[in-house]
Amino acid sequence: MSTSPAPTRLGVVRYLNTLPLIEGLEKLPDLQLLPAPPAALAQGLRTRDTDLALISVIDAMRCRGLS
Predict the structure, then answer these.
(1) Residue-wise over 19-32: b if at least 16 C-beta within 10 A, else e?
(2) Sheet with 52-53: strands ordered across
(3) Which pTM does this prediction carry?
(4) Residue 40 half-sphere exposure, CB side, CA atoms within 13 Å?
C-alpha cells in the first residue's frame, strides 16, 4: 500500500504585490497555500507550521539556521 507524501505547506500573504508570485499555485496538488499576515509567516517557519514562506529579507536573516 502506497501513501502519498504530505503536501508542501507554503505560507503566503494575499497582497497585490504578491499575486504574481502565487497566482495559480493553488492548482498544484502537492502544494498547500497557507494565507497569513506577514508578521505570522516567519513564526510559521520557526514553529514548523509551514515548510516555506514568502517572508521579508529581515525575517529571512532572523530565521537563518532553522534547517
Answers:
(1) eeebeeeeeeeeeb
(2) 31-35, 8-12, 52-53
(3) 0.82
(4) 10
How does DSSP assign 5-66, residue by residue? PPPEEEEE---GGGHHHHTTGGG-TTEEEEE--HHHHHHHHHTTS-SEE---HHHHHHTTT-
pLDDT tens for 14-52 read 999 999 999 999 999 999 999 999 989 999 998 999 999
Q: How far apart are CA 27 and CA 62, in angstroms?
A: 31
Cell of 47: 514553529
